[in-house]
Amino acid sequence: MGxxxxxxxxxxxxxxxxxxxxxxxxxxxxxxxxxxxxGLDGPYSALVAILLCGIPMVFWSLAVDKVHRxxxxxxxxxxxxxxxxAGLETSLTKLAGLWTTWGLIAVVYCIGRWYWDxxxxxxxxxxxxxxxxxxxxxxxxxxxxxRRLVEPRDGTYAFGQFLLGQGKADREAIYGxxxxxxxxxxxxxxxxxxxxxNFADVILRPTGEIVATPANFALWLIAxxxxxxxxxxxxxYMLTMRPxxxxxxxxxxxxxxxxxALICYPPFVLMSDGGPxxxxxxxxxxxxWFDGHPIVLAAVGAILVFLTGIYAWATVxxxxxxxxxxxxxxxxxxPYRWTKHPAYLSKNLFWWLSQLPFLVxxxxxxxxxxxxxxxxxxxxxxxxxxxxxxxxxxxxxxxRAYAAWMxxxxxxxxxxxxxxxxxxxxxxxxxxx
Length: 433
What we know:
The protein has 15 helices and two strands. By secondary structure, it is mainly alpha-helical.
């Protein structure tokens, strides 16, 4: 048995520890058990689940990982804080920029009719309650933080400077600020809108129904994994804060990246019923096609649970930092040690196996071809998303080091080199396992 390559080629350090996600899972599991026992399936119970998922992650991050001490926070803990009077003008300028940004997001919500219908109403209700508290708390938070930041004049300051006419503002910093808040405003509303239904789906199913068949058990586990994904992701969008080292370093500046991402989410989603990339014509779920074959149902269900587990694990690995279209630190642990895009890979494999687009009830060859090709295009969209994300993150030397390590050590590149007998990118021969 030869020595593993990674022994002499250590994996780059991850920006997040394993403990953060595990802490969040423990808190979420405890509340889920309580909610199932007492039948607490309502939307406010779902918000408690988010709270009890987030608090342990914050505690672990600060008490164990001490992320607030990371240089990447931009906070100087070693020097005495600046006098309040010295940074008051900067803080007030930033508050003007921050509050105006929130106002612009509110205007977008008012314009978008979809925000006032269906599940989005819950998100708007949450925002209406939270905004007065956020405005009040932002004042002491900004005054406290700016006294300790190495450079308090960031994108929020530049935007406030522009609004108040205080000299020439940094245009690129303003664009970065607006992109970051566009991400948060768009995706946080979406995540909050789907939290209640995902939570209720796990809580409401009777235990007897869950354990009645392997297929039912698999379906409940899949729902549970999706709830975990949504809960952790929602926490990530909420807690974009420097003291947690979970702030947005940069939002994707490329139009292609935004296009590839937004067409996967409402109201722009192209995969919805009747949409250009709808691959469901005449299709049925896997439980329909394999009905009456319990062994096959159990096997397929187990694979789908595994794939959904990878998908949820990829989100949990982010801890407090999950977010689309942003750079909030480079992950190299969990499923990201095996592939750079575990969520996209597992999600697409799940769709192919659960939908089986080449099987249709219409017995129409056109539907077979259309569904198969269309789902292939959907997978292509996710490949496009992956490439645009790599282009964005590639500006960070830490990501380039991770990508190079993956090229040398990830399973697929290693398999291809073993098949072809080629050497690693660094010129080393392929090691035996």
